């Protein structure tokens, strides 16, 4: 795996780092339809039998869409969930072979490819593969889309219910977030997000988030030692904010959008030190019990109308051209989803580090978590 600087350059090729977010709910460019060996669409199956087993993030797919998929294809959906990329990786590495489609983030797709955990199914050659936005082709984790199809993409910042906790409106940075000490604060249980935010807060630049300088990790851990949120969990954060049991949360922008639909006083904060831009994907693990059903599912989800319904449910934009015509106005007009011009420069790709840096991330995160 290359350095983080190389990763930034590669991710910039998606569209200058953040134009893919600025063009959220818009854009008309598509991937060219590549006819790779075995990629002919003429005999692509559209109907099936049996089941397709999904392994996805919690609350990250519309149950009604799964019913629609079954009605259209005859394939029953079985869904299991995970709370972090690392959890999904550990599951596959443990030998779990019961899943047909998994939904990892960009940097994790790259790791899974390097570990030979994914089938080369060439989603860009599927009937709907030509609808992949051009800024979602040539991506650093899967340049030719040999292993992955786009799902949702977004950023990780801070959700603040300004009515329930007015003091959270004073949070302008990750350093503020880690030191403000407000009640009813939640953190994601995600080592990449937590540790990279702490590194940013202690002065590490976005281009250096895969540093192997142990002193920088020691400084991040020192900051984290004083950070004791009420809840550390990637799941159920939307529900807690809506219920009022949480007022301030490290949050993905789409989950913040869903909070705002129920609690209009929720705002999305772009920390001044910068925040992570990420893209989730659909992949097929080696050993998938039904490869045809996996392909049918991925292709069905790349239909603009179907993926737009998922965007409307999840609160994120997606990588499929034409989907914006079916997306809600509330999504298109939310500054948490469509990045304001003065915030564009704050976004940079989630760090995709080598093993040495990943081990340091793990060490900092587990030490902090164990001290809670």
Essential attributes:
372 residues, 11 strands, eight-stranded mixed beta sheet, 2 domains, globular, single chain, three-stranded parallel beta sheet, D-Maltodextrin-Binding Protein, domain 2, disordered N terminus, 14 helices, alpha/beta
In short:
The chain is α/β, with parallel strands linked by helices.
Give an account of the 3D structure.
By secondary structure, this protein is an alpha/beta fold. The chain folds into 2 domains: 4-22 and 48-154 and 279-332, Periplasmic binding protein-like II (D-Maltodextrin-Binding Protein, domain 2, 3-Layer(aba) Sandwich), CATH 3.40.190.10; 155-277 and 341-370, D-Maltodextrin-Binding Protein, domain 2, CATH 3.40.190.10. It has helices at residues 4-15, 19-22, 63-73, 85-93, 106-114, 174-179, 191-201, 214-224, 237-243, 253-262, 291-301, 304-314, 329-332, 355-370, and strands spanning 51-57, 76-82, 101-102, 148-161, 185-187, 231-232, 248-252, 266-269, 275-283, 317-318, 347-349. Strands 4, 5, 6, 7, 8, 9, 10 and 11 form an 8-stranded mixed β-sheet that branches. Strand 1, helix 3 (63-73) and strand 2 (76-82) form a beta-alpha-beta unit. Helix 7 (191-201) crosses helix 8 (214-224) and helix 7 (191-201) crosses helix 14 (355-370). It is globular. Mean pLDDT is 90; it is low at 1-41.
What Rg do the Cα atoms give? Answer: 20 Å
As a percent range, the share of strand residues is 15-25%
Count of distinct structural domains? 2
| Mean of residue pLDDT values | 90
CATH superfamily of the largest domain: Periplasmic binding protein-like II
N-end to C-end Cα span: 33 Å
* Largest beta-sheet characterization: 8 strands, mixed
Helix content: 25-40%
Briefly note the CATH topology name of the largest domain. Answer: D-Maltodextrin-Binding Protein, domain 2
Number of strands: 11
Low-confidence stretches: 1-41
CATH class designation of the largest domain: Alpha Beta
State the secondary-structure class.
Answer: alpha/beta
Number of helices: 14
Shape designation: globular
Order of helices and strands: HHEHEHEHEHEHHEHEHEEHHEHEH
CATH architecture of the largest domain: 3-Layer(aba) Sandwich
């Amino acid at each position: 795996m290359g350095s983080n600087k190389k990763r930034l350059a590669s991710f910039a090729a998606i569209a200058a780092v953040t134009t893919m977010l600025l063009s959220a709910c818009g854009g008309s460019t598509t991937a060219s339809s590549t006819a790779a060996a075995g990629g002919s669409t003429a005999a692509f199956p559209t109907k099936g039998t049996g089941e397709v087993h999904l392994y996805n993030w919690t609350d990250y797919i519309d149950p009604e869409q799964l019913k629609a998929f079954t009605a259209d294809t005859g394939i029953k959906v079985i869904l299991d969930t995970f709370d972090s990329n690392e959890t999904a990786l550990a599951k596959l590495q443990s030998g779990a072979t019961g899943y047909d489609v998994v939904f990892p983030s960009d940097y994790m797709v790259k790791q899974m490819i390097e570990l030979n955990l994914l089938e080369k199914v060439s989603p860009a050659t599927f009937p709907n593969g030509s609808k992949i936005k051009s800024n979602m082709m040539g991506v650093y984790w899967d340049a030719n889309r040999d292993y992955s199809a786009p799902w949702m993409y977004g950023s990780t910042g801070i959700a603040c219910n300004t009515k329930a906790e007015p003091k959270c409106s004073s949070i302008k940075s990750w350093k503020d977030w880690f030191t403000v000490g407000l009640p009813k604060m939640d953190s994601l249980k995600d080592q990449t997000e937590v540790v990279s935010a702490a590194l940013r807060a202690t002065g590490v630049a976005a281009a250096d988030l895969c540093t192997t300088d142990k002193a920088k990790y020691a400084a991040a851990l020192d900051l984290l030692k004083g950070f004791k949120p009420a809840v550390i969990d990637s799941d159920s954060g939307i529900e807690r904010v809506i219920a009022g049991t949480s007022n301030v949360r490290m949050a993905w922008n789409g989950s913040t959008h869903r909070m705002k639909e129920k609690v209009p006083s929720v705002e999305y904060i772009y920390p001044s030190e910068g925040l992570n831009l990420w893209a989730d994907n659909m992949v097929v693990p080696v050993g998938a019990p039904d490869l045809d059903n996996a392909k049918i599912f991925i292709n069905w989800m790349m239909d603009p109308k179907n993926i737009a319904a998922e965007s409307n449910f999840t609160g994120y934009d997606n990588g499929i051209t034409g989907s914006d015509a079916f997306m809600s106005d509330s999504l298109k007009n939310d500054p948490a989803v469509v990045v304001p011009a003065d915030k564009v420069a704050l976004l940079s790709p989630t760090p995709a580090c080598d093993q040495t840096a990943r081990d340091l991330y793990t060490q900092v995160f587990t030490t902090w978590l164990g001290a809670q």
